[in-house]
Amino acid sequence: MPVDSDLYRADACTVVDLLRRQKISPHDLLDTLERRIAAVDPAVNALPTLCFERARDHADSLMRKPAAERGLLAGLPVAIKDLTDVAGVRTTYGSTIFADHVPARSDILVEMLEGRGGVVYAKSNTPEFGAGANTFNEVFGATRNPWNTARSAAGSSGGAAVALATGMAWLAHGTDLGGSLRNPASFCGIVGMRPSIGRVAHTPAHKIDGTLSAHGPMARTVADLALLLDAMAGEHPADPLSLPALPTSFLAAAQGAWRPQRVAWSATLGITPIDPEIAAISAKAAERFAELGAVVEEAHPDFGGVHECFHALRAYQYAVRFADLLRRHRELLKPEVIWNIEKGLKLSIEELERAEAHRVTLTERALAFFETYDLLLTPTTIVPPFPVEQRYVTACAGTTFSNYLDWLAIVYAITIACCPALSLPCGFTGEQLPVGLQIVGPPRSEARILAAARQLEEVLGVRGTTPIDPRPGK
């Protein structure tokens, strides 16, 4: 059948249905993406590494199977963030140290996705080692926000978010430590979810029990995001922390009837300044849960001490992962990465003990909070997209930040409390830049979050605002 040239506009669930009914083939989708990338990526630089030949070989192998045996994604293309290994594909981690690195084996996350019918065709841009919530690096340059190409796409999953927002991806993989998946989703007007610890298996790197960083799904709609989470989730023996798949799919949960009865809203979590316009837009969206029958109250857990806790644990992780690179390639690392590694190397056992103990306390406080509230709602980011040349946010609402991390507190507090969270598009600023609402639940409550997000998505009428063509800005 003739393939619609606007197929890139379709949602992923629709495209997978077409694949299953053999109305289209994976090759049709790869051809569509190749044309779309050629047309729009020069303006935004989201997908610097393409692997269409490898993707077509994989599509061929899928097509040799009966349609019913082609996996959950049935041949749907998926973009993988350039922090994650794909066998035979240039994988740089955004670092000149690894500018020519081609791994021999894929991360187990990629192996699982490909085993479930995903077709990898591109690597999405990321800052060096994912550090800094603005997607730029010395290998590929900066990724630009398609709503205004003079603005940042945030990071570190900025390339993935931009690819989705511009129709260069139906689904994309991201990672999140201090909001690296949620912030780009907010800045680019798409949906992104940091799942619970262990929900998505991945190859451990340097530390078996690392729990600050998580792999997660990114998409244009909540249902599409749930579909990708189903394809990503499940246990694997190579990841000792991974969780078994649940009996009910996340897509079914997202399309289900569960509704929150009582939700909490907080503009700041008591730990951060916020741009007044962002606060107003997010609060208006949160209040619309009342239309779904929920009581909406202003409240939040006690996050006192979260800054010190996050800084110590993040620095320790950077020291464990990158201290050897600092010793061998200091001149090739960006200042923010050096700062984090050195901070980690200077930590005492007593400082680590206090940080780990306080994380337990903060998680206990969050769990107690969710005995009263079904969900916690906040802005995903505290500012609108900032100029792309600016390395990070230095001030907000009269407060000057002393480092490049503290403007991310509203998302990293949720990381520390071990909670899953989703960023949902909820409106636009006066400059027509997207704003995201962060929807948080207790550990392992992805199904609850997805159901609530899908229903709020309908109330807000935000589906269909992407994909867009890049819009030049000043």
Nutshell version of this structure?
The protein has 474 residues and is of the alpha/beta class.
SSE blueprint:
Blueprint: H1 12-20, H2 26-44, E1 49-50, H3 52-63, E2 77-81, H4 108-115, E3 119-124, E4 136-137, E5 141-142, H5 158-165, E6 171-176, H6 182-188, E7 191-194, E8 214-219, H7 222-232, H8 250-254, E9 262-265, H9 276-287, E10 295-298, H10 306-329, H11 335-345, H12 349-369, E11 375-379, E12 395-396, E13 399-400, H13 409-416, E14 421-428, E15 434-440, H14 446-460
Helix pairs in contact: 2-3, 5-6, 10-11, 10-12, 10-13
Structural write-up:
- The model has no long low-confidence stretch (mean pLDDT 97).
- Helix content is 36%, strand content 14%.
- It is globular, with a radius of gyration of 21 Å.
- By secondary structure, the protein is an alpha/beta fold.
- Helix 5 (158-165) packs parallel to helix 6 and helix 10 (306-329) crosses helix 11.
- The chain has an 11-stranded mixed sheet, with helices on both faces. Strands 4-5 form a two-stranded antiparallel ribbon. Strands 12-13 form a two-stranded antiparallel ribbon.
- The chain has helices spanning 12-20, 26-44, 52-63, 108-115, 158-165, 182-188, 222-232, 250-254, 276-287, 306-329, 335-345, 349-369, 409-416, 446-460; strands at 49-50, 77-81, 119-124, 136-137, 141-142, 171-176, 191-194, 214-219, 262-265, 295-298, 375-379, 395-396, 399-400, 421-428, 434-440.
- The protein contains 14 helices and 15 strands.
- Helix 9 (276-287) links the parallel strand 9 and strand 10 (295-298).
- It has a single domain, classed as Amidase signature (AS) enzymes, CATH 3.90.1300.
